């Protein structure tokens, strides 16, 4: 593992690290914020999964999450959104290939050799964090934005017992019924839609829900509402009697100005679960 | 004036606007955060001047200032750092020409026709803000980072009575004695160093100081300490018995991770002066 940078930040350290990933069969880079408390021993961790076109860097520099994670003594991990490098397949569209891994293990060519973001985020990266940093893997929570909100919700519901709480900012809530989803799940997983169900938050909510608290925020002026389909997830959550809070925020759009506005709420929500 | 974008942000609006600048003889773009309170009438304003290579956008997306400005009911203005456009002279170096206006009115060619950032920030942009937005020009404060910290300190001391408070993050504190300064002041103002004195915070502090509170933060691990020369400004401020707080922050560098860490303190400092 190589240290790309480490900056003092809110009393802790914002680091960027690169490592050879076996899941993705390429070098992967992630951001990790460790609060001051990590100097004295393992701290709980909040995963932040990013959206289409992002790298590890966008949320790390624009979401303002360190402010509140430092206050709560929580680590933040910012994974990349896809495998990277010249050997990795790509597509001209912004929403397929690099920057658009959708947090699945691809089974279809040309994606299958590298696009294994589910395994990367669910297995390889947590193990790496636990071995190399003062991270308490018994206290994990997860959030994300847009495609990353989809990732957070599907990982949380797909790995029962792993995360104490899950939240999402403007998640892609029902990808198997959206152009943000059908295209990518078809490309990565093939045309058998039965294989998509494990990667659709609304279907997972209908099927099993989440064994902890859920928080989602979506802006009423989000320019992608028709693709996000929050109404599907809201309906499924209420029908299941899922413990949680599903909010529509008046006037907010899809940008990081929206994400940063509600970040304090989300980190406080996760802190309550992580320290409860 | 053209609206480039407006995003809901912490209950207010983060806007980006472009206008034909007479001071710079080109189109100029700036960011403006208006808190919720601006809907009910004029609010005080905190100027944030950015550093070398930045546009209006860097601090607007990375400094986290809106969090605290919203809490305090203060507007934030993020000017660009130089004139822009094909007609504007430039230099291959990152620290001269575009992105490096140094907040002076250039008198030397090829810079003189457009590089009038002092007039732009001191005269044209405040007038434009007062005419078009709910900004109370009787309650202004100013801050900035690096070259922008230099700008904040020199504007505050050079315009007595204009700003109620001034702060700076890692300011270029003594440019006439630094390679971040001698090159640019020489290029923009010519070789007569007497003309530089109005643009050197340390010399201004020795000469007259500031008629209000001053706050500066600089990291002990700042990679540019030899160019910033905080020791010169510290010495001058103490010798003058300047009201103020000059801090060296252990472990912090020159990045926005440093700026965002101490932004809450700076906004609270200015709020006290603006509402006092």
TrEMBL record, chains A, B:
Pfam families documented for this protein: Esterase
Q: Which SUPFAM superfamilies match?
A: alpha/beta-Hydrolases (SSF53474)
Its catalytic activity?
S-formylglutathione + H2O = formate + glutathione + H(+)
InterPro entries attached to this UniProt entry: AB_hydrolase_fold, Esterase-like, S-formylglutathione_hydrol
**One GO-annotated biological process of the protein:** formaldehyde catabolic process
Among the entry's GO cellular component annotations, what is one? cytosol
Instruction: Return the similarity comment.
Output: Belongs to the esterase D family.
Report the protein name in the record: S-formylglutathione hydrolase
**What organism does the UniProt record list as the source?**
Roseovarius nubinhibens (strain ATCC BAA-591 / DSM 15170 / ISM)
């Amino acid at each position: 593992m190589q240290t790309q940078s480490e900056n003092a930040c809110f009393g802790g350290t914002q680091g960027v690290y690169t490592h050879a990933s076996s899941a993705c069969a390429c070098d992967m880079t992630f951001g990790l914020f460790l609060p001051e408390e990590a100097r004295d021993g393992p701290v709980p961790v909040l995963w932040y999964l990013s959206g289409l076109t992002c790298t590890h860097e966008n949320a790390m520099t624009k979401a303002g999450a360190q402010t509140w994670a430092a206050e709560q003594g929580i680590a933040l991990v910012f994974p990349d959104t896809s495998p990277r490098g010249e050997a990795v397949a790509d597509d001209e569209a912004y929403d397929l290939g690099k920057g658009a891994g959708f947090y699945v293990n691809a089974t279809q060519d040309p994606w299958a050799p590298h696009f294994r973001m589910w395994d990367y985020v669910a297995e390889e990266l947590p193990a790496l964090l636990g071995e190399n940093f003062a991270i308490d893997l018994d206290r994990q929570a997860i959030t994300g934005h847009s495609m990353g909100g989809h990732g957070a919700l599907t990982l949380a519901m797909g790995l029962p017992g792993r995360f104490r709480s899950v939240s999402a900012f403007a998640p892609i809530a029902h990808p198997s019924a959206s152009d943000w989803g059908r295209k990518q799940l078809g490309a990565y997983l093939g045309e058998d839609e039965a294989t998509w169900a494990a990667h659709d938050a609304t279907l997972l909510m209908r099927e099993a829900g989440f064994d902890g608290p859920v928080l989602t925020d979506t802006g009423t002026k989000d320019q992608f509402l028709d693709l996000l389909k929050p109404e599907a997830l809201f309906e499924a959550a209420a029908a299941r009697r899922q413990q949680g809070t599903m909010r529509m925020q008046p006037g907010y759009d899809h940008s990081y100005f929206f994400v940063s506005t509600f970040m304090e709420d989300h980190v406080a929500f996760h802190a309550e679960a992580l320290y409860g």
